[in-house]
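Example record used in the benchmark description.
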Amino acid sequence: MKVLFISGSPRKKSNTDYLLNYMQQQIGGEIIKISDYAVEPCKSCWACLKMGTCVINDDMKTVIIPKILKADAMVLGSPVYFNNVTAQLKAFIDRTWSLRGKLRNKIGGTVVVSRKYGAEAAIMAINSFFLKHDMIIANRGISGVAFNSDDIKDDLESLEAATKLTTRILELEAISDKLKRKDA
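Model output (structure tokens):
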């Protein structure tokens, strides 16, 4: 199973990254930190409608999108900024418009870290992304509570939720494999 963890946190060694790494240790996969790549915002040029691909030639197109297309599951993570996902994750989300129809039935997982408020809107933004692409949402999502560096390590509830999310992703992958074998 190929799992891609996407971190929308601009901070190095962030609480969001800690949860994504925690999950990756359980399930495997690759972590991409958007702030480490050149990802321009969508220009709403609609050229992808004619070309079948985004025309912005940056790391999103040349590095990240090929990994997304090969992944069986994606876990998107973000700290909560102004009751929503970060600008980095929003740019990522917007740039996937060129992938309409290509992410169907991939598994999606949500991880957000907030300071006790705003998590629900960020979770809804990520889960809406999954629904827009006809992806399978693994569960409601993880809502960690942290602010200072390493605070998330003390949020035992979010660590338990991360384990439950990895378990659910594996369950969904097993169901998907079973259905694929049945159809073959």
